[in-house]
Write a structure and sequence with these properties.
The complex is a heterotrimer of chains A (about 350), B (about 325) and C (about 250). With about 350 residues, chain A is mainly α. Chain A has 13 helices and two strands; from the N terminus they run H-H-H-H-H-H-E-E-H-H-H-H-H-H-H. Chain A has a single domain, classed as ABC transporter involved in vitamin B12 uptake, BtuC. In chain A, strands 1-2 form a two-stranded antiparallel ribbon. Chain C starts with a strand and ends in an 11-residue tail after the last helix. The chains are: A mainly alpha (about 350), B mainly alpha (about 325), C alpha/beta (about 250). Chains in contact: A-B, B-C. The complex binds adenosine-5'-triphosphate and magnesium ion. The site of magnesium ion has 3 residues of chain C, from helix 1.
Amino acid sequence: MIFEQLSGNLLQGLVLGSVYGMATMGLSLIFGVLQVVNVGHGAFIMVGAFTSLMMFQAAGVPPVLAIPVAFAIGMALGMLFYFGALKPLVSPSGSGIKSLDMRAVGMGAGILVALLVVMRFLSAAFKLHFAITLFVAIIFLYGFLLYIYGGRRQDKAPELATLLVTFSIGVILEESVKQLFTSEARGFNWAIGKLDLGVTVLPYTKLIASFGSLTIAVLLYLWFRKTRAGMAMRSVVEDDVGARVCGVNVDWQYALSFSLGIGLTVTSGVLLTMFIPVGINPYMGGPYTLKSFVIAVLGGLASPYGAFFGGLVFGLVENGSYTLFAQFQGLEPFAMTRFFSFVMLLVILLLRPTGLLKVK
Amino acid sequence: MMRPVRAYYPILPVLIGYGILFGIGQMVPGKWQLISQLAFFCALGQAFNLFMGMTGYVDFGYVAFLGVGTYGMAVSIYYLFDKGLGLTMIVIGMILAAVFSTLLSLAVGAVALRLRGAYFAIATIGVNEGFRFLIEGARIWNGSDGMIFSRHMKTAFGRETAMALSMKWADVIVFGVAFLAAVMTLLYMRNKVGYALTALREDEDAAKVMGINVTRYKLIAFITSAILAGLLGASAWALKLTYVYPTDVFAIHYTVEAIIIVLLGGAGTLLGPIVGGLIYGVSKYYLAIVLPGFQLMIFAPIIIMIIVLFPEGTVGILKKRVFGTPLEKFII
Amino acid sequence: MSLLRVENVTKRFGGLVAVDDMSFEIRHGELMAIVGPNGAGKTTMFNLINGVFPADEGRIIFEDVDVTRYPAYKRAHLGIGRTFQIPRPFASATVRENIAIGGMFGAAGSEISVDRAMELADHYIDIIGLKEHRDKPAGGLTPVEKKLVEIARALAMKPRLLLMDEAMAGMNPKDIDEMVAFIREIRDTEGIAIVSMVEHIMRAVAGLAERVIVMHQGALLVDEPTQEALSDPRVIEVYLGQPPEEAHA
Ligand SMILES: Nc1ncnc2c1ncn2[C@@H]1O[C@H](COP(=O)(O)OP(=O)(O)OP(=O)(O)O)[C@@H](O)[C@H]1O
Ligand SMILES: [Mg+2]
């Protein structure tokens, strides 16, 4: 009985694991090329999930067809955040301006405060509009200052800076989606039949998601191996100074890899909704960030393929441990599984921070 | 061991700052809630800065230390209320909070502090969630039902005292923790610990070669910062609110606030967290009135703006301005 | 008795053998140079001596203590000091604080108070002649000044062995001569052994070192007194068949 249940669960785990794996490839790609850990990873998955949900609800588009849209949204977001926030840190132009003109800053702060004061006396209906205006004003002020000063660093920023920036990007996404769609959990139902395997029943949606993940992983592999663009990107991973010397435009490779990574991540959000079409909310990304980190360190943080196999392993372990915890009275299997993935992360980091699975 | 007294002058602006804040809270009617919130933010920033600002490592799971600290106080009151211990119970609660957060910091530190940069951040990012799920999953201390102990407090101390404890004394303790955090920061800055931390923040390999046992000094900063967070959780959350729910006290949201405060004020400075705490606290309070629910959406792009354009933060910039003037002795 | 003994030390990076079965000794108070072409493994050898990473094989013995498995900071406490190929002062700390940090934590460290370390720093600031920059952040100095700060920081550690990685790279001949004189002077006043690593600048080697070790592809090629080493045909061979003087960087 328990074995039947276990093998059924493990099968489910493997199928889910392939989606997990795909959901982590973007994280590893970004780390491999830019040496940046995308702490806001989960938020991009959430954006993908909302893309899928909205297209299904508004126009009845099946999630499979949302994939290219999500990928495009991801690429666009990637470019936006790369040039808007990361570039001055990882690839500083070193314009050499030492002190920002405090008058510009003071003026900007003044405008913001004035906006706030105006808002104090507005009716509730106007507030949303003004909140958006305020948000846009901040972004605009930032863009203006960035344009004038081009970032102030001469050298690569410390790691702390990129961690905090990607983290903040995640918060911006979560909060924006919350403003647009509220924080209630949503779901949809895309039923296209099931496949009965005896030990377990797999809906076709899950199978498509798993197959889609595998396809994307293979495509990425081929792209890296067979295309010029892919090889240029790989050369940056190997040795960015060497690549620069050989005429590779490293700055552009950074931008491209970041947005490709984000594109993949947002796409994986769509695939995940084919697997779990419920519980879609602005803060759903948090657990995925954690899971992706476990998976990424399993496979070696800088290797997208390692991440894919790490995902398979993690899917198995997660479902296996859920089944196991469910056997004990007095334990909440769901919460314990989440706790377990956290412990797993620490254990892997303790044993071999550079990855347990050696996949090149 | 001890440095000359003038090395410690910068504690004066801290003292004056908190003094004025406390005074306003006491004197101006109806403002105590806001003032105690501000003190909480200052304390949070100061405690967080002691690790993040001084070592350059970011602990995304930081709120877990506040969480276990909250449980320390809660456990003390919840299980000891009928033992006739009186106010000793509060002391036990504070001690338990410190012990819990120390233990957690040792456990996390044992793994994470061996790791460099990004790997450290990865190791810490799940700590708060992990702990929350342990409490919920294994149904420790009532699991997800949390602990509500206002009744226990009334039984133990009587209605009047229980009210005073949560309405007033909890906030006074928060002021105390904030001041203690500033004192610890300054002590470290002026002694070998601080120089070791500066060195390892700038260049960890070079620091090792200089003879600095980097793991040891990182651990010192980590534990100190964790204990302060534990005490803060015990006072500002447990004692003040008289309940604890795992979903509240492990919410990553507070780590975000700590980061904002430290960056606004200036990471690695003594006065930064106070300035940052005040700016953040006041604007959050105001934003909550004019634009409820928008605080993080406004502050997240501001974090990016600070990191890209003004990495030194307010006090960092101020420090440069007063360099070479008599004020330089006071502003660090 | 020798100050440092390196016995059959090997270090591999993946398939690359960066240091290949090196053995040599350094005596107390000696001025020695390690030379070799780019990628010969000089910096790696330094990293092994002061513990930036451990050796894969072999032993390193400093004053009769087997330090092969010691972490870097413990080796510093025993008296191994180091400067880097690209200077790495602590950018946000002032010149004075940088040097004081060396004093506080190096071999002298355990007994020295912060204030005493600051006085020590002032002493070395005088020696390197950067008095006017004393309270400025080290990040804003010129490369040569940074190099001087690094040397002072290492000296404040009170090492018995000072490893200088490319102390003269990128300097003009006048600066090189000054630096050579400066290094000889600190050897005499501090009474420490100095191993300076030089890439191609034979002019400096001749004026500086009493003994030369030549490394080639990770292995020891020559270990001889300076004059003999400079005319050794094997050494000339390594420098592309040119006489070393002409292989000037
Ligand atoms: N941390 C490392 N990981 C991988 N390979 C390394 C590492 N450090 C050095 N190497 C390799 O080991 C070899 C020896 O390098 P090393 O820096 O010791 O040479 P060097 O003699 O100091 O050269 P240079 O004159 O360029 O400073 C080189 O091929 C280098 O690429
Ligand atoms: Mg070298």
